[in-house]
Amino acid sequence: MQSWVKMALFVLVTAILTRLVPFSAFFRNVYTLVHEMAHAVMTLLLSGSVLYIHLYADQSGVTHSMIQAGWRSIPVSLAGYTGAALFAWLLFRLQAAGRERTGLLLVAAVASLGLLLFVRNEYGMLWCMGFAVVTLLVCFLTPRWLRLLYASLVAFLCLVESVISSVTILVIAIADPAAAGDAANLSRATAVPAAVWGGYFTWVALWCARNATSLLFRSIWNRRAEERREPERFPM
Q1: Which residue of 1, 12, 23, 162 lies most exposed, with the fewest beta carbons within 10 A?
Q2: pLDDT tens per residue, range 97-146
Q3: What is the 8-class DSSP label of residue 193?
Q4: In the chain, what is the straight-line distance between the N-terminal and C-terminal CA atoms, in Å?
């Protein structure tokens, strides 16, 4: 229970703080891109075709695809929220392991692939290009402290947005099930109420957030323990 409380407080504080960061709205589109790319990748894995992805300045996005009718629509609809939450957790795992550069290369690769293969509206294409360039510059041309700060910002925003968007879709699924996006699509495909699917998305996002924050606190604790064990040196 204590870890869940820590996670809730951490997400709440991070959500407030990240909105005070200049240009944070620009970086919140990372979550949107990963969400839509997860839909696109799952569509391709199930032998469908992706027509295009559009990203918008208000952090919304849409993926238009074609896939054979039937059960295939279920994993495609599941992929967005689930894949984006797992991606945020992966970024925290990489950072906890001291591999923040790998995480930055990963998000730059996702933006580059999105630009080359799927994203077709003007804002989305400019955003993917700008984000990929900025991320690669930070990855290779900045000191490590700045690289860590940038990687943390991207990871935190992905994590917070995964929780906020999942809770939002749960609330919409309860109030207006037909307007609940992926949860509504899943409800039509399975006859399971949209609110249940919204609850599932929320549970996955909270599980990933709990594990991500546990990794963060553990890495901080281990770093401090190592600093305490390091022998004090005196000049001779």
Answers
A1: 1
A2: 889 999 999 999 999 999 999 999 999 999 999 999 999 999 999 999 99
A3: -
A4: 51
- In single-letter form, the type of residue at position 52 comes to Y
Q: At what angle do helices 144-175 and 122-141 cross, to 10 degrees?
A: 150
- Give 167's contacts (C-beta < 8 A, 6+ positions apart): 202, 205
CB 220 within 8 A of CB 14: no
Closest-CA residue to 92 (of 3, 11, 209): 209
Between the CA atoms of 125, 126, 132 and 133, what dihedral angle is there, to the nearest 10 degrees?
Answer: 140
Distance of CA 76 to CAs 12, 20, 178, Å? 30, 34, 18
Report yes or no: 40 and 66 within 8 Å, Cβ to Cβ: no
In eight-state DSSP terms, residue 119 is: B
What pLDDT digit, counting tens, does each position of 38-67 carry? 999 999 999 899 999 999 998 899 999 999
- Compute the distance between CA of residue 6 and CA of residue 219 in angstroms, rounded to an integer: 15
* Structure-block tokens of residue 30: 């990372």
Please, are residues 167 and 85 in contact by the beta-carbon 8 Å criterion? no
Bridge partners, 65 (sequence order) = 50
Helix 194-229 to helix 2-18 angle (10° resolution) is 90
* Sequence ranges of the domains in the chain: 17-223
